[in-house]
Each structure stands twice: as C-alpha cells, then as structure tokens.
Amino acid sequence: MRRKLLLATNNRGKVHEYRHLLTDIPFELVTLADAGVTAEVVEAGESLEENARLKATTLAAQSGLIAMADDSGLEVDALGGEPGRLSARYAGEGASDKDRISYLLSRLKDVPWEKRTARFRCVIAVATPSGEVTLSSGECRGLITFEPKGRQGFGYDPVFYLPELGQTMAELPMEVKNQISHRGLAARKVNQVLSRPPFSTFLEKTAKN
User: Fold this and answer.
1) N or C end of the chain: which has fewer CB within 10 A?
2) In contact, 63 and 127? CB cutoff 8 Å
3) Domain ranges of the chain
4) CATH topology of domain 3-208
5) According to the model, what pLDDT value does residue 204 have?
6) What is this structure's pTM?
C-alpha cells in the first residue's frame, strides 16, 4: 500500500500541477483538506528556503505524515529582485492574480524590453514528522511582457515570456510547462529525494506498523 505524502498548500493551481509532476513517487498525494489539517503556517522566513522549510516541518509534525511544501517567487532584475518571496502578496493581501499582474506591469511601465529580464524560482522542502528535511530547487529564466497573454497556468504565468519558445508560460500546454518550469525542475529532484533516506527509511518503518 502506498503511504501518504502531504502536499502542504491550499493553492489549487499548485495542487493541480503537482498531481501531474509527481506521478511516479511511491506515495499517495493528499492535500491539507484530505488530511483534515486546518493549521495555517505564517511565512515568516526571509527567503524562499526558510519559508519552504518552515511549512514542511511544521505540517509534517502536526500531521504525522511526510510533508512537502514549496515557496516560489518571481524575481525581476529591473526591480532589484522584486517581488521575490513576496510574490503572492505583491499587490496586497487578498489581491487576485490579475491585480498582481497589473501592479507588476505598472512598476515596469518605463522599462524597455531588453531590460525586462526575470526568473521564476522554486524551492521545495520535504520533511519527516521527526524534523528531517531536504531541499530541492529549480529556476526558469525569461522576460516580462508588456501585457498578459495566454489562459493556462496561474500567478504571473501570462506575463512571463520564454524567448526560446516564443510564448508566455500561460500559453504552454501543461506537459510542456512541466518540462521547463521552475516547479517542474524542482519536482523532478524531489522524485529522487523520496527514494532515499530518510524518506525511504520512514516508508519502511511505517509499512511494518
């Protein structure tokens, strides 16, 4: 019987992507709602790494399951790396994806095309209930467009342009996005991490109980 891996996010876009990205792992992916976990973890860290680690270790300890949490962000060179770890709250608490994109584009209104370089970065933490944790990361480079284009994906995908493909992230089919995205690259490393100690050891111990 496959054991459960807690996917520590309430973001439906991320849940949808991870269900496609983590199809070969020896775990059943469960959401916070599936596991009956209602606790909210405040992202008080000063980096993507700190926030991912905090969420994974806290929710693994509370649930008794191996937990996987990520923190990701858009880093725009012309804005000194903003919005970074504050990407989800860049336009204020409760803002929609559309609000965040509008705010970002307003900050870049006088920036020429060649200086609109940016990268998506993702850090994934996987933790056992006893507090052992491993980090994996991935990044994807591109440019910020002058207006949104595409209906796939979520977040800043409609304004993140990939020169080598001639499309924004939001124009890509899911299978293509998963091959080149920051989250896809980090998730492929997680596939390897879960097959090694301490996570394989945790699987063996729980299988005997």
Assistant:
1) C
2) no
3) 3-208
4) Maf protein (3.90.950)
5) 65
6) 0.88
